Amino acid sequence: MHKIFLVVKHEIITTLQKRSFWIMTFLFPAIIIFFNVGTQVIAGSSFNNEDIESLIAGTGSTPQSVAYVDEAGLMDRLPASIPDGTLHQFASEADARAALESGEFEYFFVVPADYVDSGNLIVITRDFRPFNTPNEDLLSFVLAYNLTGDEETAVALLDPTPSVQQHALAPQTSNDQNNPLTFFVPFATMFIFFFLISMSSGFMLQSVSREKENRTVEVLLLSLRPRELMLGKVLGLSVVALLQMIVWMGGSLLALNRSQAVFAQVSGYTLPNGFAIWALLFFALGYLLYASLMGAIGALAPNAREGGQFTFFVMLPLLIPLWLNVTFVQSPHGTVATALSLFPLTAPTAMMTRMAAGGVPTWQILVSLGGLAATTYVFVVLASRFFRADTLLSGSSLKWRRFITELRQST
Amino acid sequence: MRKYWLLARHEYRKLVSKRSFLVGTLGFPLILGIIMAAGIYFSIEGDQHRPIGFVDHAGVINTAVVPLTDEGEELLPLRPFPTEDAARQALTDQEIQVYFVIPADYRHSLQMDAYYWQDAPSESAFQDFNAYLRANLASDYPDRLQPRLQEGSDLTVRAADGSREFNSRNVFNFFVPFFAAFFFIFVVMSSSGYLLQVVTDEKENRTVEIMMTTVSPGQLIGGKALGLLAVSLTQVAIWVLTGIVAVLIGRIFIEALRFITVPWSLLVVIILFFIPAYALIAGIMTAIGSAVTELTQAQQIAGILNLLFLLPFFFAALFLANPNSPILLFLTFFPTSSFITVMMRWGMSTVPLWQMALSWLILVASALGSVWVAARVFHTGMLRYGQSLSLKEAFTAVRPRS
To answer: B89 to chain A: nearest residue by CA?
Structure first.
């Protein structure tokens, strides 16, 4: 027991002393947030986003005048709600081009003579940005007004359902679909869980293969049984992983609370009761499962480089929900999401994502947790079979076949 | 020259004959393809096909009106309910996926409520309901106007000089530069790992001592980098060919793919930028690999440097919004980010010729510099075992000897 404790202490201290650990724990999320949020803010401010509703209601900023050439002869009347000077007509394309050259306008629209039949609307811009085009809604609105002769119909045709209040009727309900956090929180939960589990189990592989590479393990095995070594490492690194989880989850929950306090439109988002406790349970089991797998690879591979080639395949089940994230966000209670959240290997990320979305029946959580616990137990037992003096001391290279032969030998 | 060739050939054969090359080239895209296909399949199949219900207090919808649709497109069926209670009952019985309640003042307010059971209705439910509404709003007008009133306009964006055009039909052409950038990233990621270890094998089994008697450090590194480049290009060529075949098959089924044309000028730019960009990475990675002995440490440094190459991707939104912003201008000229930035700006906008020329010159100069530095650092560190070069030693190695 004392020896296990020594291993635990050693693992905690060496990992916490690594600069890379602290970089990953604090700097990495900061970089992600900076690049995601920061660049969105920069980019968002340079998008053209005047919408037609605010223009009609007169609430938007005074819009820049929009130039057009009407070859179809359609736009002879202007709707009453459009302020004077919003539109500027040029008699011909040549005139409009001249105005473009002189810098009077950034762009102008051309309504071709066959507009009614073809629907083509052309915008000619000085600065070519196809994905940030000038808003054609204004022109479409005026065109529809001239075709119908009725302003209300023209607005409705542009967007018949500009504001739909969505209501869920199920008794145990998901979060409000009108809230932007409903998409963001499950997404973030998925990423946090994936990174936490893959990183902390990655430490396990590093730690085992490092001692194998520099032959410390030969000395260690003089005074310690292989399984004690494994147990100590798993426990020690679990403390480190928990620390990391507290920093990330705590930080995210804090950010969630703060953002609700500051922005009115995202308030009212609630995580299910006891979310933190469930998160802790799923994380602990998920960590144990993957750490024991990585430990097994570390015990068999001669060095970190060869072991690294196998990690992708081991981490694959954890990655699958990440690839299917669209499905999870769209229908968190659909067949695919439910199946993945009940399957033990994908459960840690899949179930937490669904729980963050809300409305998961308790029996599913319990079944998933039970399955995960049983699988974890089996994998820990299997992994401990790979932790033997002969595997730890051998330098033979790692092939898929060896997993089977070594497993047979251990019994 | 012959020695470069020998080294390159040796490196190429060694890597291509490995099983991991085969798995990486064929297996990886296969897995990726399967997962993407599964994702698309689930998100399409997962869409609910149950009808849309509605309670119409405003009298706008006449179920006899059929919206215009594209060929082969089918809208979700529409089911009217006299009261909200009846609609609620049908929802509880899972006969419909959602029901809309249209208030009496809809034509004026455009407000509406939607009720669903647990999972939010699919996007197509909203789109199809909009199509029904538009068709009903337009139903009083002459037939000739129907397409315009229901479908609106089809916008074409044209550059003032007429050089570029963008509309809903040629949208695929704008993805070509993205694919180029994506392949570049993939090549960087996959070969920087090899480049880091480019000399470790020879160092471990002491072959390097013998090799030094016949080749210079510059030749050794240049030849190996050339071999690795060939490996990466083989990989990319296989993928691109697969992609072309997929597009040729796909255009039978998907109309938008028929508008793809080969952007020859872009291809020239890709080739002109790719070679020096690769040389730059090769130089940086070998310099790290030969200065640092422990692989994990080298990987950490390389990981941070990889970020420099990935930098433009973090600004993806900015490329969409303002492709000529000062930040992106800086990234165009900064050697590590120039390839991707030029590609992305090419896709989103037009890049002035002088900017491209200047960016290319900076890139070539820094590539030559990095290869030269790598050779010097390698020269100093090549016969050392188990001891990393300190930063100071690396600098002295680079400084010209007096």
So the answer is: A169
Delimit the domains of chain B by residue range: 52-153, 167-398
pLDDT score of B293: 67
- Which chain A residues touch B150 with a CB distance below 8 Å? 157
Burial class of residue B242, CB neighbours in 10 A (0-12, 13-18, 19+): middle
Residue B124 has pLDDT above 90, yes or no: no
Read off the tokens for A163. 């504001």
The H-assigned helical ranges of B17-75 are 19-22, 28-45
- Domain identity same for A190 and A123: no
- For B149, which of A44, A124, A148 is closest by C-beta distance? A148
Q: Closest partner residue to A324 among B39, B108, B149, by Cβ?
A: B39
CATH level 2 (architecture), domain B52-153: 3-Layer(aba) Sandwich (3.40)
Question: Does any domain span residue A237?
Answer: yes
* Cβ contacts of B138 on chain A, cutoff 8 Å: 148, 153, 157
- State residue B237's pLDDT score: 85
Number of H helices, E strands in chain B: 18, 6
Candidate from A97, A323, A334 with C-beta closest to B119: A334
A94 and A191 inside one domain? no
Whether A150 is covered by a domain: the verdict is yes
Complex-level ipTM:
0.70
Chain A nearest CA to B89, separation (Å)? 11
CB–CB contact B160 A119 (8 Å): no
Mean pLDDT by 10 residues, chain A (411 residues): 87 84 78 69 60 54 73 81 80 86 85 85 81 75 85 84 80 60 78 86 86 84 87 90 86 77 64 81 91 88 76 84 78 82 90 83 90 92 84 77 77 60
**List of chain B residues whose C-beta atoms are within 8 Å of the C-beta of residue A160:** 110, 130, 133-134, 137
Residue A272 lies inside a defined structural domain of this protein: yes
Q: Give the residue from A161, A316, A319 with the most B CB atoms within 10 Å of its CB, the best one to mutate.
A: A161
DSSP state letters, A154-176: HHHHH-S-SEEEEEE--SS----
Range of the domain at A340: 175-410
Look at A169 and B116 and tell me if their CB atoms are within 8 Å. Answer: yes
pLDDT confidence of residue B213: 87
Render pLDDT for B8-53 as a digit per residue (tens, 0 to 9): 898 888 888 877 778 777 877 787 778 777 777 776 666 567 888 9
A124 & A208 share domain: no
* B238/B227 Cα distance (integer angstroms): 17
Nearest of B326, B217, B380, B120 to residue A358 by alpha carbon: B120
- Cβ distance B147 to A143 less than 8 Å, yes or no, reads no
For residues B378 and A117, what is the distance between their CA atoms, to the nearest angstrom? 69
Q: How confident is the model at residue B376 (pLDDT cuts 50, 70, 90)?
A: confident
pLDDT digits (tens, 9 = 90+) for A345-372: 999 888 888 888 777 888 899 999 999 9
Give the per-residue pLDDT at B69.
78
